[in-house]
Design brief:
By secondary structure, the protein is of the alpha/beta class. It has helices spanning 43-51, 75-81, 98-110, 118-131, 149-163, 179-192, 207-211, 231-240, 243-249; strands at 4-14, 17-28, 32-36, 56-65, 68-69, 83-86, 93-97, 142-143, 167-171, 198-203, 216-221, 224-229. Helices cover 36% and strands 29% of the residues. The chain binds adenosine-5'-diphosphate and magnesium ion.
Length: 259
């Protein structure tokens, strides 16, 4: 069965303040959905709530991956079920090397008794790093420590490639990337596109979508999806900005605002 990911009426609060005010979204395997929107409209909150970040309380709604209740799962179970988030601001972890981290993550995803052999892991990791034009020394560096913005983003894509998730969420993977790095990251994403995997690409700018063609584009404002369309919607946003959407919908302040 091809992957089916569904969000229904999702509301989420941070420290008692409601940020997500009812999100509905359906992603089928093989599809790329882009969520675009100005800053402070709840895009990263959606990503964090879906991954089960403890700070983001889900107050209403349902999320299912292939019929399974995602909201019932802990963070590790979500990863095992095939959810993956490339974060806008990846954490640095001193004392844990990139390769240790990746192997642990892969084995957690594969489950007990099905661990990847060291040789196979190294071979896969080397292959993917080559595709991403990453220096092999990054294997032995502490996770994200001292990585540049672009190196962190490539490393997130490396994780995605090795973990082979069912639903990939990329949160502003394009920020901080120069044009060469953007192309490499986009090629990495495109190589992972298949019938069994859905993508939710969160981005402020349209430029990534020149390389990774979305099937559906959604605009987020005030913690809601306020407009959806095809790739032409992203092009219009690139050309004209977000003001026309606000005018069309009578929105004065697009951010989630002060509660
Ligand atoms: P976007 O990713 O669209 O720029 P965010 O989801 O990061 O927006 O933020 C939406 C709103 O939620 C903002 O008002 C932001 O200040 C608030 N917010 C997000 N994360 C936190 C947090 N950890 N603590 C407090 N407020 C937060
Ligand atoms: Mg954000």
């Amino acid at each position: 069965m091809s992957t089916q990911f569904e969000i229904r009426g999702l509301k989420s609060s941070i420290e008692g303040k409601e940020i997500l005010k009812g999100i509905d979204l359906k992603i089928q395997g093989g599809e790329v959905h882009a969520i675009m929107g100005p800053n402070g409209t709840g895009k990263s909150t959606l990503a964090s709530a879906l991954m089960g970040h403890p700070k983001y309380e889900v107050t209403e709604g349902e999320v299912t991956l292939n019929g399974e209740d995602v909201l019932e799962m802990g963070v590790d179970e979500r990863a095992r079920a095939g959810l993956f988030l490339a974060m806008q601001y990846p954490s640095e972890i001193t004392g844990v090397t990139n390769s240790d981290f990746l192997r642990t993550a892969i084995n957690a995803r594969r489950g007990e008794g099905n661990e990847i052999s060291l040789i196979k892991f190294i071979r896969q990791m080397e292959g993917k790093m080559k595709e991403l034009e990453m220096n092999p020394e990054f294997m032995h560096r502490y996770l994200n420590e001292g990585f540049s913005g672009g190196e962190k983003k490539r490393n997130e894509i490396l994780q995605m490639m090795l973990l082979e998730p069912k639903l990939v969420i990329l949160d502003e993977i394009d920020s901080g990337l120069d044009i060469d790095a953007l192309r490499i990251v986009a090629e990495g994403v495109n190589a992972m596109r298949n019938e069994d995997r859905g993508f939710l690409i969160i981005t402020h700018y349209q430029r990534l979508l020149n390389y990774v063609k979305p099937d559906h584009v959604h605009v987020m404002m005030q913690g809601r999806i306020v407009k959806s369309g095809g790739p032409e919607l992203a092009e219009r946003l690139e050309a004209d900005g977000y003001d026309w959407v606000k005018e069309e919908l009578g929105i004065v302040d697009e951010t989630v605002g002060q509660a």
